[in-house]
Each structure stands twice: as structure tokens, then as C-alpha cells.
Predict the structure.
Amino acid sequence: MYLNIDYNIIAIDLPSHNKSNTFPELSLDLYVDVLKKLIDFLKPEKLILGGHSLGGVVTQEYYFRYPNYVSALILCATGGRMRVKQDIFDSIKPNYQLFLNNLREGLFYRKTSKEIIENAILEASQIDPEVIYNDFKICDAFDTLDKTSSIEVPCLIICGKADIMTPIKYSQFFHNKIKKSELHLISKAGHAVMLEKPKQVNKAIVNFIKNYL
């Protein structure tokens, strides 16, 4: 399912993820700096930043540092504070396969197709456990709740109604604090809402861009 908008769409792999180069130390600062270098190189006329989960953390942090260069935000299954349960940290390094198996319940609505789930887990399995561990540490340390109301650009907020990792209350907080915001809660979807319900997610994005940009 393609996103039918009159914009150039770029999906990036963060450092040490998938096809990106490996970095010895990972941090939110690094992720934001890499994104900044890419944007400086591209020099877009309008910049719409979108991020899912950790990507939403990077997206928010970029905005707070460079608000004048962002036209709009899309925050998907993420939050202004992203505490992580200790049992997640405890499972990643000792038994990565067990952690991956637990993603079936953690990421997805209970009736999501097996094919979608298995493909997502296969992709996650190709990332080094140490990288995943560091990503969760970045999320756990993130807390910008006191800055949320300072977001002045239009913001699309998307969340699966069955999301147990970043529950609906996270997205509702965004919607309550961000003046120019639009909230979409999608039924029969969990944390991986963009994989589970791509048509609904893409429709929300298209309508958001038409209405605000």
C-alpha cells in the first residue's frame, strides 16, 4: 500500500540498523545529528517529519532543537515519555529469540495475520540485540512532557486502539497539548499499527496533508 502524496518520501535506517553503517556508540544525539545532516543535504522546501515509536522520539527531539525548519509532524504509536519495563531489558541480551517471540503479543492486535507478524519479527531479528537494547534505553530515558505544548506546527497523531506498548493515553496527551493536532485511533491494531492497518494509516496521512499543508 503506497502513500499517494505529492511529496518526496524518504524512509531512513538509523545508525547500526539494517543497511546503515555500524556505529560504536548509539544515542539520541547521534540519531538526531544524522537526521540533521540528511535534511541539510536535501534542503527540502517543506519538511514533514514522521516517526513510529523510537522514530517518534527522534522526530520530537529534532523538532525541539530545530522548530523553525519543520512544517509538520506525524507521531505514530509514540509518546512524550517512553518508560520501558525492566523485563524487556532482562530478556534482550540473555535470550534474543525469546524477546522476538514475545513481540507477537507486545506489538500486534490478537487477530493480526500471521504473515504480517512473522515478516516483522524476521526484520527485527536482523538487528543486533545490542542495538535493540540501546534503542530501548534511549526510549526509557526520554521525557519531554513539559515541552509538548510548545509544538506549534500541525501534528498528526496515530495510535492503534490495542497498543499496549504506547497506550492510547500517550496519544491523547499529545492531542490535548498540541493546538494544531489531529488524533486518529485505529481499531484492531496494536503498536505496529502501520503494518496492521496500512490503508487507514495512509488515508489519515493523505487527509492530514491536504487539510494542513
Notes: The two ends are 22 Å apart (CA to CA). The mean pLDDT is 95.
